[in-house]
Specification:
11 helices, alpha/beta, 2 domains, 307 residues
Length: 307
């Protein structure tokens, strides 16, 4: 396991989430992605407001697909393993969910993470490039990988030699655009980096990318036009997987009532404080971080801006 390739961080992070008292099962999202593996429409960019569960979903996908850890203890009891989802996957000629679990080499990048004392884009991107090359050389020691080659040439070489393909899970893809040291020229270089790494690359089995704002906000060209984009305001697909629905909050509130002494929050309080969002299908959605924090703390306050 490495820093980016087959990291155990998504597994450990999602295992902790799934063990939480106020956990909401969104694993049906995985069943929607499985049919896209290896297909032309395999590039997904899902954008949502901050604190809306983007990283949780990215960790979930990484934990499920990554071959590093056995995830059956987590996912075997969740929706992805249900009879209904299994039958639907069979109807789509996808087979059983377990045939995909822990079957892939996953490259997981959280673009919000920077090197220590980072003051330049060059240092920022070098951390990613060096880390990826080091991980690949360790994973495939007989492949003759050299640190001087470009990362896309290394990945292409692995595909040519052994048919190796990768799942990419990219969290906070747009974080670089908000870093103080990043110039306009750096932003163009970053878009070119993503294009060269991903566009028309046969080694990319699936690419799942999340951020706050859509690609069109930062790119007016064709650099990343292979992505299918899903935002909260206009795209109905995936709308139920980010944020909590009223029925999901009802279930969490029942747990709160059963496990908390001296209740200070009513169900109406949660509605008045935290359901200020609408999905494209018109359903009210609650901010998940705010709900979980309020119920855990037994206190209403603005958790969206908390560090």
């Amino acid at each position: 396991m490495g820093l980016f390739l087959n990291s155990r961080i998504p597994y450990d992070s999602y295992k902790a989430t799934a063990s939480d008292k106020y956990f909401v099962d969104k694993t049906a999202l995985i069943a929607e992605l499985i049919p896209a593996l290896g297909r032309n429409q395999r590039f997904f960019c899902i954008t949502r407001p901050r604190r809306f569960g983007k990283s949780v979903m990215a960790n979930m996908i990484g934990a499920f697909l990554d071959r590093t850890e056995d995830s059956s203890e987590i996912f075997g009891r969740l929706q992805i393993a249900s009879e209904g989802i299994s039958k639907n996957l069979e109807r789509l000629s996808c087979g059983k969910y377990s045939e995909y679990m822990n079957h892939y080499d996953v490259i997981y990048i959280d673009f919000s993470v920077t090197p220590e004392n980072c003051i330049s884009y060059e240092a920022y991107i070098e951390r990613i490039l060096y880390g990826l090359k080091h991980d690949l050389a360790e994973r495939f020691p007989e492949s003759g990988i050299t640190m001087e080659a470009s990362i896309w040439d290394i990945l292409t070489l692995l595909y040519q030699k052994i048919g190796q393909r990768f799942v990419f899970v990219m969290d906070e893809w747009d974080a670089v655009f908000h870093m103080e040291f990043v110039t306009e020229s750096d932003k163009r270089a970053y878009l070119l980096f993503l294009k060269l790494l991903l566009k028309d690359r046969i080694y990319a089995e699936l690419v799942y990318m999340t951020g706050v704002l859509p690609i069109a906000k930062y790119s007016d060209g064709s650099e990343l036009n292979m992505f299918l984009e899903y935002n909260m305001a206009t795209a109905k697909r995936f709308s139920g997987y980010f944020g909590f629905s009223s029925s999901e909050v009802d279930a969490l509130y029942d747990i709160y009532q059963q496990t908390t002494e001296n209740l200070r929050i009513s169900r109406d309080d949660l509605r008045m404080w935290y359901d200020g969002y609408y999905a494209a299908d018109g359903e009210r959605m609650y901010n998940p971080r705010s709900i979980i924090c309020a119920l855990s703390d037994n206190q209403l306050r603005n958790y969206e801006i908390c560090p």
